[in-house]
Amino acid sequence: MAQNTRTVPAGTPTNVTQNHTKGGIGESTLRPDGTLKVTGEFAYSSDMWHEDMLWGQTLRSTVAHAEIVSIDVSEALAMSGVYAVLTYDDLPAEMKNYGLEIQDTPVLAHGRVRHHGEPVALIAADHPETARRAAAKVRIEYKELPLVTDEASALAPDAPLIHEGRDDHHAGHVPHPNIVHRQPIVRGNVEEARKRADVIVEGEYVFGMQDQAFLGPESGLAVPAEDGGVDLYVATQWLHSDLRQIAPVLGLPEEKVRMTLSGVGGAFGGREDLSMQIHACLLALRTGKPVKIVYNRFESFFGHVHRHPAKLHYEHGATKDGKLTHLKARIVLDGGAYASASPAVVGNASSLGAGPYVVDDVEIEAVALYTNNPPCGAMRGFGAVQACFAYEAQMDKLAAKLGMDPVEFRQINAMEQGTLMPTGQVVDSPAPVAELLRRVKARPLPPEQQWLAAGEQADVRALPGGLSNTTHGEGVVRGVGYAVGIKNVGFSEGFDDYSTARVVLQVINGEPVAMVHTAMAEVGQGGVTVHAQIARTELGVTQVTIHPADTQVGSAGSTSASRQTYMTGGAVKNTCEAVREKVLEIGRRKNGSYHPAWATAELLLEGGKVVTDGGEVLATLADVLEGEDPIDVELEFRHRPTVPFDLVTGQGDGHVQYTFAAHRAVVEVDTELGLVKVIELATAQDVGKALNMLSVVGQIQGGTTQGLGVAVMEEIIVDPKTAKVRNPSFTDYLIPTILDTPTIPVDVLELADPNAPYGLRGLGEAPTLSSTPAVLAAIRNATGLELNKTPVRPEALTGTL
After folding, report:
1. Is the peptide bond before 13 cis (omega within 30 degrees of 0)?
2. Residue 464: its pLDDT value, please?
3. If DSSP codes are grouped into helix, strand and coil, which group holds residue 408?
4. CB 323 within 8 A of CB 413
5. Dihedral of the alpha carbons of 356, 357, 363, 365, in degrees to the nearest 10
6. What is the DSSP letter of 718?
7. Does residue 572 have a pLDDT over 70?
8. Which SMART domains match (predicted)?
9. Are the beta carbons of 549 and 556 closer than 8 angstroms?
10. How many CB atoms are closer than 10 A to CB 153?
11. What pairs with residue 369 in β-bridges?
12. Strand partners, 310
């Protein structure tokens, strides 16, 4: 059998070890990778290096929908320094497509391209500039085809089919082949409930396409191995999902595709789908040399999916005393050319489309379309963001029509523990929606127009327009707005959601040391910090080593759906508990005859010692483990089961856990120039149990800032005539900087969920939901305009559209 020799490239992740005397659950321990990151010493995937590596380049389509008439690679292949040029015909295996759920995405386009920027050819060369020049010499002849860009063109009787002959498991229940998935939610009788309504409000809402805008571009390094396999070092969100999609396309068994997580510079859903992984492996296996691919920012906009743009129609009714009577909604999500995570996004948008409110009579329909627009998939908030924007605008409309305070109106209708969701699922853990709203409303408001008191010393950064120095106080008005949202935690609808953890406990140089090994993708959420805290808490050790994430251990699932602390943290906790039992078994075998407490007492591991629940020390961990083999345990952890939503009624216990956040936005708006300054975005959120408060607050503030971005500046602009992306750069696609980010006071509730490890609640996504509608509500409050589209641009405020 061939020996697999692995040359480890520069920048490969190494074990991260921290020495702490404390640092358990509930403490704000610092990130083990934090200092390296802020000093520029952390190795990201784009820093990977191999001395004899080649550079990969992807050639992408310049049109959105076209037949590929011909491809000529001869001129590119003839260039000095070019090692390979690959097209669809060069793919080595029968499987030539991939996908998270539906395998509809070609590795390289075949026959036709379905969106602007679709990969058509791959080049490997000895220098990145050579690879780029070679790509420019590949000649492709296109014959452009009619475009599908919106619901009307997608569902027309003579609409071009984006995917002909669909045979996926959603194809049989959608009314048109250009609908990826459709999920209705039906409960009660909306027509009868409408008769009880004293007021009815309707609204049409448009949510723009948002980019994840992570700062670290897609990148990775593929190294061919002597056994015919490949070692891939890559920034991703889900190693084992990547592996499941990569191996069949390479024609290799999974054990010959060995993946290691390299440094990830942000993700937010954009790394859940494959980007350059298969391409780098194909080039490495073809050339026999390591191949590195790093996207520039322009290519990154085409290299990953985006948040689904949406059009939403909502109708709510209420009685004159403020009780909701009914909800009827239709949510249309543009999934773009390939399915990605669209089916699951539809499930979230529909099942969470009523918001955190009690409403007994509901009809919601959510669909995702196939179009020739850029593919859309996972992004922080995952379908619940678009719905929250719409239903929170509706709550403000209802409150205004009834002459009620918008917060009080929400509190009257707020769900609580025991509420029945529109899907029929009982909310069986704390749901403090009314309390979260109370807390953000009770917070003192920041002083109005603070720059006035400063006079000539006023800092222009405090004014709308900031350093552009365009506003000097004329026409500036204050606005305050509120919003609250509901998000699910974990994978839903019957998905077998599990995480794996391996924990090794041994004595090294006389000290007990725990090693935690998972495949969890650390994308900035702080999992490496929390895993070490859990190990210290459960095993009573001070030194914990976090092994680099790879596929040599079982799957940890995706770093998405606010699930990793719940799921992989739960796996680490369970595995540590099993290791602890083995320690106690050894202790009883060695020392049981010397002290009766070994057999009768509740024993704990604390401070490197075995102690009774009364605090009596029975032995040190080092003594118990001395002369023993390392204790090595690997276990899986699963949450309670969920079920798919019924395809007709949408009924079913589809979610594991719900999480809630509320926001109050305070803005100052220059109504003459259409400029907005967000002064404060106060938030309150229930996290169940804060395992690390510093990380908790950071996640809440980060999610809040992403919601701010889509409220006032972020949108990928797709030309409706050509379906081409018009702003694929950070020059034209704007994201909030520190100058745009307001004060974000955070109020954290800790109401434990009895079904979750430590009572925790997934928290990373919820603040992204309600921050956007809170900002829009505040701008409406300041201007009196309806503003039913994100982002709010100056021309929408000045009437110069």
Report:
1. no
2. 83
3. helix
4. yes
5. -20
6. B
7. yes
8. Ald_Xan_dh_C
9. yes
10. 18
11. 179, 334
12. 207, 333
Between CA 669 and CA 784 the distance in angstroms is 12
Structure tokens at 315: 């109708």
Q: From start to end of 408-510, where are the E strands?
A: 476-489, 498-508
Q: Is 218 in contact with 232 (CB distance < 8 Å)? A: no
Query: To which H or E segment does residue 782 belong?
Result: helix 766-783
Asked if residue 627 lies in contact with residue 733, where contact means CB atoms within 8 angstroms, the answer is no
Per-residue b or e along 154-193, where b marks 16 or more CB atoms closer than 10 Å to that residue's CB = bbeeebeebbeebebebeeebeebbbbbbbbbbbbebeeb
Q: How far apart, in whole angstroms, are the C-alpha atoms of residue 775 and residue 761?
A: 25
Query: Quick one: tokens of 631?
Result: 């204790």
**Residue 414 carries which side chain, given as an amino acid letter?**
A
Burial of 206 (0-12, 13-18, 19+ CB in 10 A): middle
- Report CA-CA distances (Å) from 7 to 253, 260, 770: 21, 13, 48
**Strand 82-86 and strand 97-98: pairing?**
unpaired
CA–CA dist 640, 656 (Å, integer): 7
Contact predicate 90/97, CB 8 Å: no
Q: CA torsion 156→159→162→163, rounded to 10°?
A: 90
What distance in Å separates the CA atoms of residue 581 and residue 445, rounded to the nearest whole number?
53
762 with 489: CB under 8 angstroms?
A: yes
Q: In Å, what is the CA distance from 564 to each residue of 1, 237, 748? A: 38, 11, 20
Helix (H) or strand (E) holding 509: none
Amino acid at 742: P
- Nearest 5°: the CA angle 310, 312, 313 is 165
pTM metric for this prediction = 0.95
Q: For the chain, what is the mean pLDDT?
A: 95
Asked if 501 contacts 670 with a C-beta cutoff of 8 angstroms, the reply is no
Helix 384-402 to helix 342-351 angle, to the nearest 10 degrees?
A: 20
